[in-house]
Amino acid sequence: MTHSATICLLLAASYLLGSLPFGLWIAKKWAGVDIRTVGSGNIGSTNVGRICGPKAGAFVFTLDVLKGLLPPLAAVALHLDSRWQILVGLLAIIGHNYSMFLGFKGGKGIATSLGALIGIAPKYVLIATVPFMLTFLTLGFVSLSSVICAVLLPIAMPLLYPGDRYRLAFSIVACVMALYKHRANIHRLMGGREPKVHFPWDKKPVVQPNETEGL
Fold it and tell me: What residue spans define the domains of the chain?
């Protein structure tokens, strides 16, 4: 197989892998529900965990992270340079957000973006974990935590990887996609209507029918 053919095959496979709607499939297998019709309607791990339980949610989260991580690792294994490692990670996120299996609809891409970032920008993941967890644990909004990390991404990338225009381009595209996917959440946050995630230690956890989260 030629070098160009290898790259084309990996690009297509990265989008295809990202498109796999694990949240939809696992919710159907786990609880016999179409996750798009319950809770927030999102196929991400937070909604699956809320509807099907924490084990199912953790399973979906792990698989969605792997969707973003495996393409950059494959590019490294094939000895492709960083631009291809970055592009295949981005294609996995696009696949999750605009899945060919769901009529080019999908999730919000945060878990898959995390996987891609572990593969191509691990220094950012280490730094972003702090604001994400602080925001999430103190305020209880996955969406707000996700938006903050998305906004920080193009700011931090030039500082962590100076002169790397490919990682900078990735950060800008990933940020714009995340903000676009969270536009309804942002509107509710500004209006004080965004529902929180209820922790196990909450006195009266309540599942609200229209909750929308970030993963």
Answer: 1-120, 122-195
Q: What is the pTM of this model?
A: 0.90
Per-residue pLDDT tens for 148-180?
Answer: 999 999 999 999 999 999 999 999 999 999 999
* Alpha carbons 158 and 156: distance in angstroms, whole number: 6
